[in-house]
Structure formats: C-alpha cells, structure tokens
Amino acid sequence: DARYLLDDAHTTVFSSPFPQHRTIRVWLKRDSGQYWPSIYHTMSSPCSAMAYHHDSRRIFVGQDNGAIMEFHISEDFNKMNFVKTYPAHQNRVSAITFCLTSEWVISTGHDKCISWMCTRSGSMLGRHYFTSWASCLQYDYETRYAFVGDYSGQITLLKLEQNTCSIITTLKGHEGSITSLWWDPVQRLLFSGASDHSIIMWDIGGRKGRTLLLQGHHDKVQAICYIQLTRQLVSCSADGGIAVWNMDISREEAPQWLESDSCQKCEQPFFWNIKQMWDTKTLGLRQHHCRKCGQAVCGKCSTKRSSYPIMGFEFQVRVCDSCFESIKDEDRTSLATFHEGKHNISHMSMDISRGLMVTCGSDRIVKIWDMTPVVGCSLATGFSSR
Ligand SMILES: [Zn+2]
Ligand SMILES: [Zn+2]
C-alpha cells in the first residue's frame, strides 16, 4: 500500500512506493529535471499512511503494525532523523493528520478507532471506537472537528477535546466503504469518495443537509482533492480514471428514491404486491427507479437511458419516459472532464499552488502531472509549467 506526498514549496516527493522494501524515500528534483532518491529509511513494518508538515519539516509515517513513526527532515532534504514512535493503533494505520497549534497527531486505523496523541510527550490523549474499520480522516484545525469515513460506508463527525470527544452527527449516503475524504474549511464542504464508484458533496456549512451526487467513475474512488480557488474537484479511481468536476455552477440534488407498491407511471403492481396482483389478475413487475425524478417505475415505463450532468450523472442512467422527454440536448453537456491516468491509481496528492498532481499506482510507479491546463491554477499563483 504505497503512499506519497508532494511537498508544497520544494520540488520534492516523499514516497514509499515499494511496500515490500518497507522504506520511506525522499526524492529530489535535480537540475536535469529528473527526480532522484536522496535519502531513505527502512521501516519495521510496511508503510500504510503518511503526513508531512512542511513548515516544521516533520513527517509522520503510519505502518501496518499500528505504530506511527515521526521523523525530522533536514533543511537541505539530505537527512532524515528519527524523532519518536507513537503506539497509535493495534492494526494498520489508515490515515494521519498533524496539527501544529495543538501539537496533536491524529490518526485512524483498522482497529476501528481514531486516536489523538500529544507530539510533545508522545502520549495518547484520547480514543474513540467505531463499529467498523476507520478508513479515512479529515480534520478542521479551527473547530477541532474530525471527519472519519469507515468500511460500513458511514462518515462520523466528531468534536475532539483534550481527552474526550463527542459525536456531532453521522452522514449516511454511500453504498460502499468510504475510500477518500476531503474537507474544505472555507466553503465548509465535505467531499467523500467510496467503493460504490460515487462521490458525495456534503454541504456542512449550509446546515440544510444538502448533498450532491457525482457519478462519473467506473471503479472505486481512491482519492479526491477540492481546489477552492477554481471550485474544481479532482478525483481518481482505481481503474486509472481522473475526473475534474466543475463545482462552480449550481448543481441539482439527486432525488430520494420513492417507494411504491405499483408503477407510478402505468400503475401496474410490483411483484410483491400480491393483493393488487390478485385483484387485477395481472403479473407483478420489477421495480426500478428513475434517477431524475426518483419515482418507482416498471421497466416498460423506463426504457430510455440518459446522462444528466446537472444532477451528477455523467454517464447514462435509467430515466422514466417522461423525464427522458424533458431532458434537452444541452442538458447533456458534461460538467466534468475525464482523463486517463494509465495506471491503477491507489493514491493521489495535489500541490494546488503549482497545479501539480502525483498519482501512485499498484504498479509501484509514481507519476507527477502538470494539471495547469485543466485546473488553471497557475494564473492565480504565478506558476508556469516548464
Ligand atoms: Zn410502468
Ligand atoms: Zn422520471
């Protein structure tokens, strides 16, 4: 399970793309433009998560055995000194975040818990257990809210205190395990990607429970990154798909699926509606749902398929016949761009200020992408691609 991070200010990639070697490596960009490994450290157990804090040059590496190791990187990036080990989890560490102001290192793991530890003393401050593996983590530094995604498909919002925590709410919407989370503290939006191939945007700041569904991937969504400046969401899936979503337009919420005992178009009973089947002497039909209006419909009343990008459906989905008629050609204009990663992406990280993206594949290859043509960040920050 390889991990990497792209340093914000230096052209440096920290990576451990070779799990069987159990190493953490620092790659430096040489004058030739090529990246070369400068230093590495061998770990006792495979690396499973990583957090790098640029200003203090501290790096936290979580391992399969549950421990987190902290290192300090020298100013010239040619030395890596071991600082301490944190007994964070009983099992694989899945995500780490470091908060300098509170001096906390917060992590989630496959022992079903979130733990937060003091980086000064190295001691455990608090822990909270979930009912399934905690797979990803986002943290709001100002309010101390932690978002934890888990294997059951649930996201828990907790407020962390010095030694305790309280559960604020749980977010349920995915039909598969949560594989990635992204919190935008400015617009107060939470994005979640899941093994059900979908992404959900949770409008936390709006306080009205508004959610937007984004369906454009055909495999597990492995990583997401929201670019606040341009209001674009970048997402990567396990099949190598890279999507850039335009979030700067007013999108529509996908409807709740309605329940009915008979087709809401032709009124024929569904097969479990024995009474009506008996009364009308008709055979029950299979229930489907129109993705646009949410009505429960039979197959005959929903023969057509259409994309509907304003609701997040970038590929063709089932719609009822009347909804199909209502969708105009211009409504089918895509609101995302799709790109080929050409390897099975397991992780992704972005250096938003320079418009660079790093993908790491199950093929153990680390790719660095110039995303400025699609995300257009360079205009705002003065970065020019070579
Ligand atoms: Zn029908
Ligand atoms: Zn419909």
UniProtKB/TrEMBL annotation:
Designated name of the protein: FYVE-type domain-containing protein
Highest taxon above the source species: Eukaryota
PROSITE patterns: WD_REPEATS_1, WD_REPEATS_2, WD_REPEATS_REGION, ZF_FYVE
GO molecular function: zinc ion binding
Natural source organism: Chrysolophus pictus
Phylogenetic placement of the source organism: Eukaryota, Metazoa, Chordata, Craniata, Vertebrata
WD repeats: 171-204, 214-255
GO CC, alphabetical: early endosome
InterPro entries: WD40/YVTN_repeat-like_dom_sf, WD40_PAC1, WD40_repeat_CS, WD40_repeat_dom_sf, WD40_rpt, WDFY1/WDFY2, WDFY1_FYVE, Znf_FYVE
Keywords: Endosome, Metal-binding, Repeat, WD repeat, Zinc, Zinc-finger
Signal peptide: none
Span of domain FYVE-type: 257-328
GO BP terms, alphabetized: positive regulation of toll-like receptor 3 signaling pathway; positive regulation of toll-like receptor 4 signaling pathway
SUPFAM superfamilies in the record: FYVE/PHD zinc finger, WD40 repeat-like
Cellular localization per UniProt: Early endosome
Family annotation (Pfam families): FYVE, WD40
